[in-house]
Write a structure and sequence with these properties.
Helix content is 69%, strand content 3%. Strands 1-2 form a two-stranded antiparallel sheet.
């Protein structure tokens, strides 16, 4: 697989960002379950109001993080996707075929597994929670194994996660709106059209696009579609130019080391106790998320990839056998940032949202342990592995 020149910098940032994310998660859990638990809730329920004339934004501190700052995270995701589509791994269909097909399987099967557990119950709406792979945590897990994981397999995981991000953006935009306002949606569409038109005319003044981008965010925020989608949309609209790549390089550390850990601090503080899963349907939600991420991801990614290789529309990464591939498929079950994000959108009831978060936390630990174990077995030759990349197990 070929990769763009900037690509090697991002895995190191993602791995270190994964460590920051882990620290923030532990702090949130300890804080929420300590004697200062009330202070944790009060901190993130602090009201914040921003107004410019008749236009404004009023929310609590957690919403400011989730709907405001996380827009920058999705902007970086959009920029990364755009760059990969134009100059990177997703440019050539033969190179992108295997991770793209594997990602689709890794989204569909976890959702189906979750629904099998929760169909007809109060948790059915949460089928989107176990679909996402957290790239920072997943890359961090792989980084622990060093050279035991081939570079081609790490690159496969990154590409799979990017396709996974595309799916997550579509799911959030289409399936988790909060009541559509068509006038606001029309305004967002007109502003996007203005951005496309200015690009076609060759206008390169960055402040103009910043003003229009803020307008798109406000319009989408008032439309009922989650405001963070504006970030992804603007990233996809951006041209792949040196200025845009510089913006991506500057924003990436900010999101990895500040915004995403802050999101974890605001959202991972689940209070554990004897009655944590007592609400009707909550235990099924937690079980569905765990099975979806740990079992569904492994089966979905591996099964879809096996089918793609069988049909000769894709091939395993160079020097990678099926044992290693199954291990990386297990690591793909580490779902965190987007999974927690979708949990907040899917469940207005706090008890059900917390049940989904418990499932996400438990699944991420289990998927990490399973993935590390399988990759270690494969690297030590204890897995009945066929190292011919295009040969299928019979």
């Amino acid at each position: 697989m070929r990769h763009s020149p900037d690509r090697p910098r991002f895995p190191a940032t993602e791995a270190a960002g994964g460590a920051a994310l882990l620290v923030a998660t532990v702090v949130a859990l300890v804080w929420a379950n300590s004697g200062w638990g009330d202070a944790y809730l009060a901190t993130w329920q602090t009201p914040i109001r921003l107004h410019v004339g008749a236009v404004g934004f009023a929310a609590d501190a957690r919403q400011v993080v989730n709907e405001g700052l996380m827009t920058l995270f999705f902007l970086v995701v959009g920029l990364e996707i755009k760059r990969e589509l134009v100059t990177g791994e997703l440019r050539a269909w033969r190179t992108a075929a295997l991770p793209a097909i594997a990602a689709l399987g890794g989204m569909a099967v976890p959702a189906l597994v979750y629904l099998a557990v929760n169909v007809g119950g109060p948790g059915a709406r949460g089928w989107g929670v176990p679909m996402a792979t957290d790239i920072a945590f997943a890359v961090g897990v792989v980084a622990l194994l060093g050279r035991r994981v081939p570079a081609s397999l790490r690159l496969f995981l990154l590409t799979l996660a990017i396709v996974d991000d595309i799916g997550a953006i579509v799911v959030i935009a289409v399936f988790y709106p909060a009541g559509i306002s068509f006038p606001a949606l029309l305004m967002a569409a007109l502003l996007v059209a203005a951005i496309v038109g200015l690009r076609a005319l060759g206008v390169a003044r960055f402040p103009v696009y910043v003003v229009l981008g803020v307008g798109v965010w406000l319009a989408i925020d008032h439309s009922g579609v989650h405001a963070t989608i504006a970030g992804a949309l603007l990233g996809l609209l951006a041209p792949v130019r040196p200025q845009t790549e510089r913006l991506e390089r500057r924003l990436h550390p900010l999101t990895a080391f500040a915004i995403v850990p802050l999101f974890a601090l605001a959202n991972a503080g689940v209070v554990f106790g004897r009655h944590s899963l007592d609400a009707p349907g909550s235990s099924r939600i937690a079980v569905g998320v765990v099975l979806g991420l740990v079992v569904g991801k492994l089966v979905g990614v591996t099964g879809a990839a096996w089918l793609a290789v069988r049909l000769r529309v894709g091939s395993l990464p160079d020097g990678v056998g099926w044992g290693q591939f199954v291990g990386i498929a297990a690591v793909a079950g580490v779902g965190f940032t987007v999974s927690l994000f979708v949990a907040g959108l899917a469940f207005p009831a706090v008890a059900l949202e917390d049940a989904a978060k418990v499932g996400v936390l438990a699944a991420s630990v289990l998927a990490s342990a399973l993935g590390i174990g399988l990759l270690l077995l494969a690297s030590r030759g204890r897995w009945p592995d066929d190292h011919a990349a295009d040969t299928l197990p019979r």
